[in-house]
Amino acid sequence: MSARYESEQPTRRGLWDARDVARFLKCSPSAVYRWAELGQIPCRRIGTLLRFKPEEVEAWLDRNASASILPFPRHAGAQE
After folding, report:
1. What integer pLDDT is reported at residue 30 of this predicted model?
2. Coil/strand/helix, residue 16
3. 70 CB contacts (<8 Å, ≥6 apart)?
4. What is d(CA 35, CA 77) in angstroms, rounded to the nearest whole number?
5. Residue 37 in contact with residue 30, Cβ under 8 Å?
6. For residue 51, which phi and psi values (nearest 5 degrees)?
7. For residue range 17-70, what is the model confidence (pLDDT) as tens digits?
8. What angle do CA 5, 72, 70 make, to 5 degrees?
9. pTM of the model
10. What span, in angstroms and rounded, lies between the C-alpha atoms of 9 and 16?
């Protein structure tokens, strides 16, 4: 994992923000924002803020762990 992402796991109490979800999923916060914009991950809007219920994120991951719904940008020159 890149050093720019914190390795500490988020607490399971309260609501998570995109950084908490990213730490839990070991991905970038921008990927979490993208999935939220596409309606692919359950979230709540509080004004302009995105918040996530930990149990919903965990259930979503369980349902979609083997599905290929998580689009990541392809790098130029990537081989199939």
Report:
1. 96
2. strand
3. 31, 35, 40, 64
4. 24
5. no
6. -135, 150
7. 999 999 999 999 999 999 999 999 999 999 999 999 999 999 999 988 776 555
8. 100
9. 0.69
10. 11
